[in-house]
Amino acid sequence: MTREYTKGSSFSTPEGFKANVVSALQLAKKELEARHEKANFIRIIMRFPKIRAVFERLRAIHARCDKSGEGEVDQDELIEAMTELFNEGRAEGRDPIKPAVVARTLSISEVEEDAGRKNKGLDFKQFVVMCAIGFILAEENKDLSTFGGMLATGDDAYRGAMTDVVTAYLSFDREGKGFFTADEFSGFMTSSKRADAAKSFFTEERWAELDVSGDGKVEFEEFVHAFSNWVSDDDDDDDDAEEEERNRRKNPLTPRVTLALQLSKGILDKQKKDVNFTRIIMRFPKIHQVFDRIRSTHEKYDLNGDGHLQLRELHDAMKELMGSRNESDAETLDMSKIEDLFMLSDLDHHGLEEGLDAKEFIVFCAVGFILAEAGGKAAKLIEGEYGNDGGEYRQAMMDIVGAYLTFDKEGKGYFTSNEMHTAAHDAGKKDASRLLTPERWRELDIDHSGRVDFEEWVYAFSTWVTAGDEEDE
């Protein structure tokens, strides 16, 4: 029997909160019908890359909210983050933040097989659930302030991804009643115009992922929890490239790198600086000088002369890059964080024993720089200055970030070949178009994953800047 919910119910009780969620889903259903659109999950599968890009940004936001570094966001951390967004004007015209609503949102978002984890904060997938619930509630109630609603302000990519999540859900719950059953799940596969594609994706294992509570029906929050996993793992069959990508995602610094790129993008936007790759090409000689100094540091601390810096040698090199000369400064260097940074920079995957070559060390410095710019626990990794060089080290690093953002215009943490080709076409300058060739793409996509993350970009960029060095020797 279908439960009846009353529109406009109070948020103060679990039942009332759920009623508002169902009401928001019904509104979304009506808006689809008004646009003469049908909820089509198969079509949304084709949009997984765009949705994944937004989810990667959410991963960075989750990491930023997680002040304790435990991998979970609790109510106090969430309210603090919401307050920042509220003060930035991301909830203009809406009511002040209501802790009771925040508490209810967290409670319904704690989708987990292990009931013993309740009230311990939200992991990343639960955080996505919370954002989706907050988004639909804020879409229906224009007075309500929610985290997911605030994020949608002025962010078309985020709004599009969350709309896709809701539309995907309504592919199964066609009445917008707040849940769907196994029969409705099976019925979708038989009624789909692309039945073969549907059956290959929606297996019995998928249903088991969806029905977390095991009660024979899937509510919106359960759906979003599973959906976030599908979006992240939709191309797991590409074993080698995907294994490397999954390892990168597991690195605790990865979401912070994405966040740092977004913050850098925000700074450039506020300064109204147009990211211009051609202009950065003109600065190659200056950047070359900074890279030479980094290479000198690499050579100096490569005590065994094997062309690589091992972890212990890196620690000593870091102290020089930070300008540290005493034990109190040395204590700020967290070896576990240095190891995480090492693993991100180890693009040939030779591991801790072999160490980083000179180009990987430049990657190490560039990633450390943007993490320091973003602040937080990683801020002490690299101070961002190399002695008293008049800011040339800092400028070179900002040039690297600016050049990267020419292609990753959203600051999502990677860019594709299509995005590179579009940027090269838009540049229209001879030097830029000559540099950004298909051969360059092969240099960039080191792990052959079809996309280039920031570390891969820096590695290739260092080669371009120093091109010709071997011929000069």
Concise structural overview:
By secondary structure, this protein is mostly helical. Helices cover 63% and strands 3% of the residues. The radius of gyration is 24 Å and the shape is elongated.
Description:
This protein has 473 residues and is an all-alpha fold. The protein is built from 27 helices and four strands. Strands 1-2 form a two-stranded antiparallel sheet. It has a two-stranded antiparallel ribbon with strand order 3-4. The protein is elongated and about 70 Å long. Residues 1-7, 234-240, 324-330 and 376-388 have low confidence and may be disordered.
List the helices and strands and how they pair.
Elements: H1 14-34, H2 41-45, H3 48-65, H4 75-87, H5 99-109, H6 124-140, H7 147-151, H8 156-170, E1 179-181, H9 182-191, H10 195-201, H11 204-210, E2 217-219, H12 220-233, H13 239-250, H14 254-270, H15 277-281, H16 284-301, H17 311-321, H18 327-330, H19 335-345, H20 351-354, H21 358-374, H22 392-405, E3 414-416, H23 417-427, H24 430-435, H25 438-444, E4 451-453, H26 454-465, H27 469-472
Antiparallel strand pairs: 1-2, 3-4
Helix pairs in contact: 1-6, 3-8, 3-14, 5-6, 6-8, 6-12, 9-10, 14-21, 16-17, 16-21, 19-21, 21-26
